Fold this protein.
Amino acid sequence: MGTRRVLVTGCSSGIGLAVAARLAKDELRRFKVNNAGVGMIGPLECQSIAAMKELFDTNFFGLARLVKELLPDMKRRQSGHIVVMSSVMGIQGLLFNDVYSASKFAVEGFCESLAVQAMKFNIKTTLVEPGPVVTEFERKVYEEAEKMDLSGADEETAKIFREIYLPYSKKVFASLGQTPEEVAEQTVKVITAKEPPLRHQTNRLYMPMTALKHADPTGRLPLDTFYKMIFKHDNVFNATLGVLRLLQRRTGKKQ
Ligand SMILES: NC(=O)c1ccc[n+]([C@@H]2O[C@H](COP(=O)([O-])OP(=O)(O)OC[C@H]3O[C@@H](n4cnc5c(N)ncnc54)[C@H](OP(=O)(O)O)[C@@H]3O)[C@@H](O)[C@H]2O)c1
């Protein structure tokens, strides 16, 4: 583990900070982790194109710039590992997360495409896909949501966002949210594996949601399920979260 090559973007707080601390502690200095990212929630009608571009500049173009810069050297050395903090929202879109989710889909498409070429040069690629993680990220998006001007949206949409989405989303974070240290722990474990996977979801409790997508290529199953969970079956949603919370307590550190 002697070579001193480590680069973690966005490590002033949250997951990046925890990952950088873990890598430094274990003297794992050969990784480049693209972690910097920002969130955005709310009705599309209330978001400016400029804000969307800014988000893409961080979440997607930040990654593209970094990889473009580092790839030639990695190719010359025939070694390296590109590690990217994606999200379960890079696999499955979520209500009122349209732009954030689109940026993570872009990240996933970019890495999936690049991974084949990288492999030819003995460069590894790993997308880490956390579910909800309790960090500044969560605090910032909710803070912005509270003061968001919803006048651009119709009354029904604004009501769905405020009265259904926000309380549900907060419950999901409270029930399923991981700590940045848990995500860092898994990130280090996965990227130091002999054969690191292209994708790794850090939150087992969230996996049933992303599995729906693969279970039905027409997209109807995840669409209907999310629709029913959010608009039709309030009790089912709350009961599901209750069971997951119980499972989480039971599995404890096994995650
Ligand atoms: N929290 C979650 O629920 C969650 C779930 C799945 C995936 N993720 C992903 O995990 C990553 C880290 O998020 P986090 O939860 O740890 O959030 P966080 O605590 O807010 O950390 C985000 C980091 O990114 C940096 N950053 C933001 N914009 C930047 C820019 N334009 N240039 C350079 N650095 C920038 C921030 O630095 P400053 O503070 O200096 O701006 C901060 O260090 C993100 O890619 C996020 O999409 C988070």
Q: What stands out?
A: Strands lie at 7-8, 32-34, 81-85, 124-129, 199-201.
